[in-house]
Amino acid sequence: MNYISTRGQAGVRSFEDVLLAGLAPDGGLFVPEVWPSFAPGFLESLAGRPYEEVAVEVMLPFLGDSISREEFAGLVRNAYSRFAHRAVTPLIQLDQKTWLLELFHGPTLAFKDVALQLLGQLFDHILAKRGARITVVGATSGDTGSAAIEACRDRDAVDIFILYPAGRTSDVQRKQMTTVPSANVHAIAIEGNFDDCQALVKAMFGDADFRETLALAAVNSINWARIMAQIVYYVAAAVALGAPHRKVAFAVPTGNFGNVYAAYAAKRMGLPIERLIVGTNSNDILARFFATSEMRKETVVPTYSPSMDIQVSSNFERLLFELLGRDGSAVEAKLAEFQATGAFGVTPSVFAEVSSLFTGTAVDDAATKATIAQTYAKTGNVLDPHSAVAVQAAARAKESHDTAIVALACAHAAKFPEVVTEATGVHPALPPHMADLFERPERIVTLPNDLATVQNYVRTHARIGKEGKN
Ligand SMILES: *Cc1c(COP(=O)(O)O)cnc(C)c1O
User: Fold this and answer.
1) Signed CA dihedral, 418, 424, 425, 428: sign only
2) Is 303 near ligand 1, meaning CB less than 6 Å away?
3) Is the beta carbon of 412 within 6 A of some atom in ligand 1?
4) CATH of the domain at 290
5) Quick check: is 407 in a domain?
6) Is residue 112 annotated as a catalytic residue, yes or no?
7) Which pLDDT tens digit goes with each residue over 429-450?
8) Ligand 1 atom at minimum distance from 384 CA
């Protein structure tokens, strides 16, 4: 399996290259050169099998010959051994036609663990083979940082530096980053806001000498391997509900479009998905696109679901590439138009194609809170605000009665206790494996919003080049 860039200028790359590079050198995102497709009888053969086995079967075609089946099965087992539920991503029935796919049983209680736990294993495996090290550098407003830290902690070949805005994350989010005792983990509070943190990371990647010396790597959601790992739970859920003999729809709370794009990939491989319902909060650029065929940027407003407070969804570029007939220069032209004018549209025929699979709906804060309250009253399930967007989007869907609708629960309610307590009257408790989070000792490192100081800190603490290993 080889990969090409959505901008068409990066040639063909192997899985290993794509894993380590993240972004393509032409500024595009990597996608498979050809979509693999399920052989006849493949979905039937997955019925009743454990998540880890389904994961190996679904992802194997994407790896090419870089990892053997046995090695990969070991990495997958390790990745999901830290999940608190045996089913890894269990399905819970909410009513006659609606299910909840719980993706929050990983170490940091958000769905990003599903992909990042595997990414950590893949990094270590490939770097060990190459005798190389990398230095992961990232910025976080909360969730991604802790998931990346848990994925990279204690890995021989990886050091990780995560910048977060001092005093601007929730207590749970900060403690998930600062209480990890591993020597290769560096959570750094920056005296600034999230944009400052992001600007520092961008500047470090932009410094060619620094980037090469430290072998900087990114773990943000544009990494193909994260998409690949997310395809698995769509397949597992659909098979559990009777695919290929039963139609299924997914309602996905969406920010950067990574999660719902993985569902599209599953559909391209042959999963019988009838509809993808894109749920947004008041930052509704995607809901407006699926209603009007025009992508038009507005300013970001804060909501109860901060991981979806996004206007420009970077992974949408991958869908656009398919919609424009895999024409990299057409993608580039659309994105240049978006950059210059804040908007772009698609033709009626492209819109008809996209509308045959996708719909979008925006769920504001009032509807989010009401959904948390109603779901608790009706079923006893306590939703986090992101999951509530999905459940509300599922409730608004107009699918036929024999279609099962699966709403994706992307975070544990205990990560967002304020709004959940307001809506239900119940304070959501942290699950057992995290119950002592507030007693764990923190290591707080605070640095000024100054590039030279931060670079110096990273250079001093990264292991690369210091132990005879490159
Ligand atoms: C990251 C995140 C999202 C958005 O997912 P995308 O792949 O960016 O669309 C939704 N909910 C939660 C809880 C998240 O952490």
Assistant:
1) negative
2) no
3) no
4) 3.40.50.1100
5) yes
6) yes
7) 999 988 999 999 999 999 999 9
8) 13
223 lines ligand 1 (CB under 6 A): no
Tokens of 199: 């600007």
The Cα 397–Cα 175 span in angstroms is 38
Domain of residue 246: give its range. Answer: 91-106+224-424
Q: Is the pLDDT of residue 470 over 70?
A: no
Residue 135: inside a domain, yes or no? Answer: no
Tell me the pLDDT tens digit for each residue of 392-438: 999 999 877 789 999 999 999 999 999 999 999 999 999 998 899 99
Mutate to test the pocket of ligand 1, among 103, 116, 143, 264 (most ligand atoms within 8 A of CB): 143
Q: Which two tokens stand for residue 319?
A: 């869908």
Note whether residue 170 is domain-resident.
no
Select from 112, 170, 104 the least CA-distant residue to 141: 170
Distance CA 432, CA 36 (A): 40
- Reduce the secondary structure of 126-174 to three states and give it as a string: HHHHHCCCEEEEEECCCHHHHHHHHHHCCCCCEEEEEEEECCCCCHHHH
As for how many domains the chain has, the answer is 1
> Does the structure show a pLDDT above 90 at 168?
no
Q: What is the DSSP letter of 122?
A: H
Write out the two tokens for 232: 């698995």
Q: Which residue of the set 97, 112, 129, 466 is catalytic?
A: 112
| 287 occurs within a structural domain | yes
